Predict the structure of Dihydrofolate reductase.
Amino acid sequence: MGRVVMYGSVSVDGFIADENDQPGPLFDWLVGGDVALDDSGEVRVSQVSYDYTRPYWDQIGATICGRHVFDLTDGWDGKPPSGVDHVVVVTHRPAPEGWDPAAPFHFVDGVQAAVARARELAGDRVVEVAAGDVGGQALAAGLVDEVRMDVIPVVFGSGKRFFGSVGGQHLLEDPDAVLPGNRVLHVRYRVRR
């Protein structure tokens, strides 16, 4: 089984979006460099960010997100982001009316079912869990192996928290990667068991 990684871009004070679900400058690092990160050529990062991010993206077999993110992005028009093979959506509602059943999106009820389904789909590849409420639930349930953060030099003051509304203390190991890129600091932690 591949590892489960909670991932997202985050402000220095721990937010993945403002109170209106707007990411503000959190994704500026994805257009501030000279190296194309994907085939579109629109996502351009520093060489350091490319060397850290591209190999990770290539390992992802499935991404887990909540229905809120799915709705905000209009389901990425049925095409998973960043070349991911499958998206597992945690929701208590069915797929949207008119949704193409052949699209590689899977709608499940609950975070544990989502991780199980994503692991099945990903095989030996990484299961990525989006930061926020769903990621925090997965962390609290002991389902996350690693936390990856792209820390952006901005302070939001309030908004949507990286770990959602997770309660209690959860220990991480010392960071095993701390890499500065253009407008971003990439940090990676293993979850202490």
Observations:
- The chain has a mean pLDDT of 95.
- The first strand starts at residue 4 and ends at 11.
- The chain has one domain: 4-190.
- The chain has four helices and twelve strands.
